[in-house]
Amino acid sequence: MTNERPALTAPGSRPRRYLMCEPSAYTVAYEINPWMDASRATDTARAVAQWRVLRDTYLTLGHTVELIEPIKGLPDMVYAANGALVVDGLVYSAKFRYPERQPEGPAYQKWFADHGFVTHTAAEINEGEGDILVVGDVILGGTGFRTERSAHAELARLTGREVVSLELVDPHFYHLDTALSVLSDDAAEPQIAYYPPAFAADSRAELERRYPDALIATARDAEVLGLNVVSDGYNIIVAPDAVDLADAVRARGFHPIPVDTSELLKGGGGAKCCTLEIRGAAVRS
Questions:
Q1: Sign of torsion, CA 103 261 17 128?
Q2: Cα–Cα–Cα angle for 253, 167, 35, nearest 5°?
Q3: For the chain, which residues score pLDDT lower than 50?
Q4: In whole angstroms, what is the distance from residue 51 CA to residue 166 CA?
Q5: For residues 270 and 80, what is the distance between their CA atoms, to the nearest angstrom?
Q6: Pick from 8, 6, 12: which is nearest to 233 by CA?
Q7: What is the total count of domains within the chain?
Q8: Is residue 67, in this structure, part of any structural domain at all?
Q9: pLDDT of residue 12
Q10: What are the CA-CA distances from residue 27 to residues 38, 51, 159, 212, 265 (Å)?
Q11: What is the CATH classification number for the domain harbouring 265?
Q12: Backbone torsion region of residue 175, taken as left when φ is above 0, otherwise alpha when ψ lies between -120 and 50, otherwise beta
């Protein structure tokens, strides 16, 4: 299913294509990250309502939203970013670490295959865009909790792109997209924000070398998963509680748009987790 609306004028932005999954099956039934507490009540209807605001925000901004059907028994399927990486029209499938999420990888890969994409079945453990972020011509790859370094090497061979491994050391930031935001993926002027304590010392040094002008997130923003943002190059979807980051990106000339995903935060995800970017067109059957 595809939904489109006229684009709003936005300097620096470009139309994006996203894949999302409505959280009609959402709950916290198990615990595989520090955000999850199976004893705490979740409100599926509230999660769906928040998700629909996020989807509608993308549509209002002129982006395209594709939908994959949720599968009963896979409550984390709403975190679509984990389902794959799509770059240059090629789909690199997720291969999840935890058994609870392992069926998601084939489900997302089937969706892409059914929609005419060339897919590659990953041999190595990886969790899609949760740990693999595209910044211009470079791919940043997270490791330490969910994705193996060997997946970075596999991805480099597959895409021909440089893949930079970054080690995560704090389990609260178990995916790269919880500790680092891509504000602009323009190869000529890439911009990121990140939270240094989430990274090992050598990875912090590499980020400092590559992105000396990066925004440094505050602890209070990181602690609400405030770095889990979606940017179209100008508009940045950000958690309402990430007030420092919103001010910082505004000062850089971006347009922050607060969208509440607090119910989905109970599962350890925010706007970015819910949003898988489709880079490159597929041939439709």
A1: negative
A2: 75
A3: 1-7, 283, 285
A4: 30
A5: 11
A6: 12
A7: 1
A8: yes
A9: 78
A10: 9, 14, 35, 40, 11
A11: 3.75.10.10
A12: beta
CB 77 within 8 A of CB 50: no
Q: What is the pLDDT of residues 226-274, one digit of tens each?
A: 999 999 999 999 999 999 999 999 999 999 999 999 999 999 999 999 9
**Is 284 part of any domain?**
no
**Looking at the domain assignment, is residue 156 inside a domain?**
yes
- The model's pTM: 0.95
Contact indicator for 15, 62 with CB cutoff of 8 Å: yes
Other CB atoms closer than 10 Å to residue 243's CB: what's the count? 17
The reported pLDDT for the residue numbered 284 is 55
Three-state SS string over the chain comes to CEECCCCCCCCCCCCCEEEECCCCCCCCCCCCCCCCCCCCCCCHHHHHHHHHHHHHHHHHCCCEEEECCCCCCCHHHHCHHHHEEEECCEEEECECCCHHHCCHHHHHHHHHHHCCCEEECCCCCECHHHCEEEECCEEEEEECCCCCHHHHHHHHHHHCCEEEEEEECCHHHCCHHHCEEEEECCCCCCEEEECHHHECHHHHHHHHHHCCCCEECCHHHHCCCCCCCEECCCEEEECCCCHHHHHHHHHCCCEEEECCCHHHHCCCCCCCCCCEECCCCCCCC
Tokens of 20: 């999302």
**Alpha-carbon dihedral sign for residues 252, 256, 262, 264:** negative
- Token couple for 48: 């769906």
CA–CA separation, 142 vs 146, rounded Å? 8
Query: Hey, which residues are catalytic here?
Result: 175, 273
The pLDDT score that the predictor gives to residue 7 is 45
Q: Which domain, by its residues, includes 39? A: 14-277
Question: Does 86 reside within a domain?
Answer: yes
